Amino acid sequence: MTAPPGVPHPFADAVKPLVDAMGGEMVAPGQARGDDVVLSWEGEPVVAVRLPHLADSLDHLLADLQRRHGPLPALGRKEKQQVVRILEERGAFSVRHGVETVASALGVSRFTVYNYLNRENAARDDG
């Protein structure tokens, strides 16, 4: 079931929200580069997904959290701790300069972000 050229395929429509949430880009399978992921339906390539670089993903995550919670620097301490927890679960601190980027976005020091992380890890170890 290949869609005619220029007509969206239902499978591509179905995965678009996921690709958007990851900060990826959908391109035609013929435009796929070596590190793109080509998705097929019933053996036919339908769409290629161009994944973002990790640093771009962190910016995308921060923008998404800001859309959901409002300006990040204006959040209270508990809300900032929750944002740090979410970012840690999503691997934000495995990115080079991740702590600095998050600290800047939250309007806190690196030390504060490390304190939030240590507090979360201690709570997890106790539980």
From TrEMBL:
Transcriptional regulator DauR-like HTH domain: residues covered: 66-118
Record's signal peptide: none
InterPro entries according to UniProt: DauR-like, DauR-like_HTH
Pfam families: HTH_22
Protein's name in the database: HTH domain-containing protein
Record organism: Actinacidiphila bryophytorum
Record lineage: Bacteria, Bacillati, Actinomycetota, Actinomycetes, Kitasatosporales
